């Protein structure tokens, strides 16, 4: 049995706890959190050993692996502490708020031969996996454009700050929401060669952005658009979408389905026809042993456990792959800050170019 501990018992930590606790190859031996109330409940009803100090837990328990689900700013130091105790690590996304630290931890995990994974669960959604398969067999020809989107109702009014919408704690909408579609873009197309036109705009949050828009270029004529807003209550829950245009067709995918339009006159993938084809995630997803939130959450933890069990170092969601996403987010921040500096020195508005109603409104506010 693989001895596992869960670190951080918020929403995601409790979700991971319930999933991994039912895994047939895992013995959940300990948990660590700062909340004594939560720890007392788990100790009483789940019979698991509890800790408020990570170092003490690592010294006291003979762990094979940990699952880290703490606020983002704690990921870096906690991952390092666990790697230095030769423990395999699953870390919730985003990987690290500091790309230099992320690079050091990636190297440390590889040097120590430890299994490492980051919780980008969309790579375990059947619809997004089908997109990957279709791209790799060239089903829509040469890809020319991709649009990656994420919307949802997280910050809907000015209110007190939480760790999620503080830049130094959770990284804001960029690291919490935009990380997901960016990670899918990395999976499908690798690193962009450049980003431009980045807008990181505050709507309700005081310390971080609530919406992000940007253009990405991947080389060979492939361009991308990123559109993310976590202050959009027209969506009941987080919704991530990918739309891809190619010379032989088009793909649209979200959590529920994968829609594919294929032009006639080209060899069709098996089970596909010219015109529109629709496959639902329910028919694209393998069964899991335990269901909470969605099959992908169980599938990603089983994937992590099986890599430890069979000592397989390859990992679709390794620290190295998550570091790509961190680096794209850093590129967006740098591009946005450059644009902000330019806006602080606007060109003189001449009589031939009078301010618009929107510019007058912005100046008055």
Automatic annotation (TrEMBL):
List the SUPFAM superfamilies: Glyceraldehyde-3-phosphate dehydrogenase-like, C-terminal domain, NAD(P)-binding Rossmann-fold domains
Q: Where is the Gfo/Idh/MocA-like oxidoreductase N-terminal domain?
A: 2-120
Query: Which GO terms fall under molecular function for this chain's record?
Result: nucleotide binding
InterPro entries (UniProt xref): Gfo/Idh/MocA-like_OxRdtase_N, Gfo/Idh/MocA_Oxidoreductases, GFO_IDH_MocA-like_dom, NAD(P)-bd_dom_sf
Check the record and name the Gene3D superfamilies matching this protein. Answer: Dihydrodipicolinate Reductase, domain 2, NAD(P)-binding Rossmann-like Domain
Record domain GFO/IDH/MocA-like oxidoreductase: where: 128-251
- On the tree of life, the source organism's domain of life is Bacteria
In Swiss-Prot or TrEMBL terms, this protein is called Oxidoreductase domain protein
Source organism: Methylomonas methanica (strain DSM 25384 / MC09)
List the taxonomic lineage. Answer: Bacteria, Pseudomonadati, Pseudomonadota, Gammaproteobacteria, Methylococcales
